[in-house]
């Protein structure tokens, strides 16, 4: 091997198409260049070196080697209408001769296969780069903008693009970028079963209430993101002061700080390197279509391993953990502020006992307060004065806690996030 490492650190392009020359990880061009430069070495690693052609010194590749290479490479032979694995493509009659397949030995010529593969490798047609250059701009409405699409601070409306108009169903991608000081709410067929990339969004509130395939959240700050059930993975990287609420098959986070994650997941949350002050908590909201969406995504209410994270790397130490669990006294149910149709009227499963007890304690405090007010037997003038005082203090609390931005983002409230 040449010693060149697989690209692992990313600065993915935004919707303007700008990239950094020093960034590699999810830059598909960089990955393609790496594979082309190291294809021979990659194939040698997958080769049974004791198997040679009987007439030449050419090494032979087994179908198992092709299947292993298929972890990195897939393709299409019908103009990207359908996507097939690498071994499925090589078994097609019109391809077998070109890629050096022998029906007698059921193996591939190393040289012929490498030449065929190298000449046909190209960028992922359904990746981020092609979505930016060939995708369609989506005019999803956001609150917090004026008629010209600008926020009060003068920043422009966030950018949303998709490749849904030219891709297959399982390769659909939606990119949401630079949503700043705005509220975005969406539930639609375009969003359903899509891969979603949320990129460089700040002081935003997002409600993506459809069953999703995969979600990547990158370089976002001071935002709240509520996701519908995610059939595969939610990955968070390079984020700060983020609240994420999601049911998902898998969850991973890297290079992030001061993030709170409310999870429903049947697998252990993966805490990778570069994290600090990650708070884990159970999933704590619902919306009317939640159970239907969970069934479509294959996610059940149990088991939920939100509190059993797997830490990878040297950052986490038992004496100085990079994560903590949300204290029950700080736990509140999260209300999604939209009227939608559906059968789910409450959280469909029980919360952990300590959080249930915390909610019950708070409800008792509210009832005691209401009883105290009632027993005070205030006259009408006193009631008016008291109500004015409470409302004034509530408005001050909204400002102090930062929740006023979220409330203001809901005015005017969209008629429905489904359109």
Describe the protein in words.
The chain has 419 residues and is of the alpha/beta class. 26% of the residues lie in helices and 23% in strands. The protein has helices spanning 28-45, 63-69, 86-90, 93-96, 110-120, 128-134, 290-297, 353-375, 380-401, 403-408; strands spanning 60-62, 74-75, 84-85, 101-102, 107-109, 136-137, 142-143, 159-162, 173-177, 183-186, 195-199, 205-208, 214-218, 221-227, 230-237, 240-254, 257-264, 270-271, 276-282, 310-311, 323-325. Strand 2 and strand 3 form a beta hairpin. The longest helix is centred in the C-terminal third of the chain and has 23 residues, at 353-375.
Give the helix/strand layout.
Layout (H helix, E strand, L loop, with lengths): L27 H18 L14 E3 H7 L4 E2 L8 E2 H5 L2 H4 L4 E2 L4 E3 H11 L7 H7 L1 E2 L4 E2 L15 E4 L10 E5 L5 E4 L8 E5 L5 E4 L5 E5 L2 E7 L2 E8 L2 E15 L2 E8 L5 E2 L4 E7 L7 H8 L12 E2 L11 E3 L27 H23 L4 H22 L1 H6 L11
Parallel strand pairs: 9-11, 10-12, 11-13, 12-14, 13-15, 14-16, 15-16, 16-17, 16-18, 17-19, 18-20, 19-21
Antiparallel strand pairs: 1-5, 2-3, 4-5, 6-8, 7-10, 8-9
Beta strands, count: 21
Radius of gyration equals 26 Å
Helical content stands at 25-40%
Shape: elongated
State the end-to-end CA separation. 53 Å
**Helix count, DSSP H or I runs of 4 or more residues:** 10
For this structure, the quaternary state is: single chain
Q: Which blocks of ≥5 consecutive residues have pLDDT under 50?
A: 9-26
Q: Characterize the biggest β-sheet.
A: 16 strands, mixed
| Alpha-beta classification | alpha/beta
Name the beta content range. 15-25%
How confident is the prediction overall: mean pLDDT? 83
